[in-house]
Amino acid sequence: MNDRTALVTGANKGIGKHIASQLAAAGFTVYVGSRDARRGQQAVGEIGGDARLLVLDVTDAGSVTAAAAQVDRLDVLVNNAGISVSLAPPTGTDVEEFRRTYETNVFAVVAVTNAFLPALRRSAHPRIVNISSGTGSLTWSTTPNPQFPSGSAGAAAYRSSKAALNALTVFYAQELAEEGFKVNALAPGVRATDLNPRASSVGGDPAEAARGAVRLALLPDDGPNGAFFSWDETPVPW
Ligand code: NDP
User: Fold this and answer.
1) Domains, the chain, with CATH or none
2) At 172, phi and psi to the nearest 5?
3) Which residue of 62, 126, 213, 216 lies most exposed, with the fewest beta carbons within 10 A?
């Protein structure tokens, strides 16, 4: 099938750009979401295939409405755009930092998903992939595990925003299951990107994380729904 369409938000760089590249290589028409037209157009050229710029600031209601009006049918929505404002624990995090983080990582996902729902409903096999984080796992935050030392309360705004995104993943999955949707969350692993500069020494290849997202974008009709997976396909506890 060469007429499948996908939208990746925040696809002008980082993990999102790799997801867009891989979906384009898989034959999708890919809408490259970027809040900056110039940087988005540059990414479109680098992504290749049938990639198209879609100017989209996910926190701007007018931008979301205008972008949705340009897409008739959508098979895959990847809610990838995200920010990390502060590494502080909750007592050291101003409520405004929480608000700013939630605007992008939580509220915007609701706005974008709801705006593109009519287009997704025109797909025979609609898929939504929410790019979350293992740091949003409450289980991993409270029990010893190989990937995260327990007891750290850092990056409270970011991590709680991803926990909220995980909850929304379950609720969207439940609500839309009967319509054939698959809505799942991905923990991409630690990647060296602008969002996570501390990962420059330890972070893995963002392309590897993107493959995990593409797998969820291509799930068969009997695949999982309302689940949380690591980039390497292993389930992540909520
Ligand atoms: P980057 O900072 O490289 O990319 C983030 C992307 O989101 C950019 O394209 C950025 O656009 C875009 N974005 C941010 N705010 C908006 C907005 N309001 N409207 C539209 N686009 C926006 O980070 P990553 O690639 O690392 O992050 C991608 C996702 O992966 C995020 O959801 C992040 O939380 C998640 N993640 C990343 C991890 C890592 O180790 N890197 C680990 C776990 C999860 P712009 O260039 O204009 O700022």
Assistant:
1) 5-230 (3.40.50.720)
2) -60, -40
3) 62
